[in-house]
């Protein structure tokens, strides 16, 4: 949707002049932010049972610093053992 995305990016320290609202650059910044959260060591099956994902997130890859690259839902299920849910 992107309605609350600028607010989320601002809280994360990214100002609105660093991207164009509603564009690929904005959604890439959000996915990069989500990827940092998902690849954190504490983001695991011991602490999290499931994650609600937007369609845009499902269609993107997660690249972890140890060389793992796969679609977000596959990464969550196969690497982190967390159930991905699609928000509809």
Summarize the structure.
The chain contains four helices and four strands, in the order ααβαββαβ.
- Poorly predicted sequence stretches spanning 5 or more consecutive residues: none
What is the N-to-C order of secondary-structure elements (H for helix, E for strand)?
HHEHEEHE
- Describe the biggest sheet? 2 strands, parallel
Count the helices. How many?
4
Q: Into which percentage range does the β-strand content fall?
A: 15-25%
Question: Structural class from helices and strands?
Answer: alpha+beta
What general form does the structure show? globular
Relative helix content: 25-40%
Oligomer: single chain
Head-to-tail CA distance between termini? 11 Å
How many strands? Answer: 4
> How is the largest sheet built, in terms of strand order?
1-4
Mean pLDDT: 89
Radius of gyration: 13 Å
Write a structural description.
There is one protein chain. By secondary structure, the chain is α+β, with helices and mostly antiparallel strands. Helix content is 39%, strand content 16%. The protein has 4 helices and 4 strands. It has helices spanning 5-11, 24-38, 55-58, 72-79; strands at 50-53, 61-63, 69-71, 83-86. The strands form 2 sheets. It has a two-stranded parallel ribbon. A two-stranded antiparallel ribbon has the order 2-3. Helix 1 (5-11) crosses helix 2. The longest helix is centred in the middle third of the chain and has 15 residues, at 24-38. The radius of gyration is 13 Å and the shape is globular.
Q: Mind sketching the topology for me?
A:
Layout: H1 5-11, H2 24-38, E1 50-53, H3 55-58, E2 61-63, E3 69-71, H4 72-79, E4 83-86
Parallel strand pairs: 1-4
Antiparallel strand pairs: 2-3
Helix pairs in contact: 1-2
């Amino acid at each position: 949707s992107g309605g609350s995305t600028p607010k989320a990016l601002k809280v994360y320290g990214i100002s609105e002049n660093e991207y164009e609202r509603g564009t690929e650059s904005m959604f890439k910044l959000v996915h990069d932010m989500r990827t940092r959260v998902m690849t954190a060591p504490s983001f695991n099956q011991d602490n999290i049972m499931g994650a609600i994902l937007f369609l845009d997130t499902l269609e993107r890859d997660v690249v972890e610093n140890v060389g793992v690259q796969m679609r977000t839902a596959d990464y969550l299920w196969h690497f982190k053992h967390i159930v991905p849910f699609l928000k509809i």
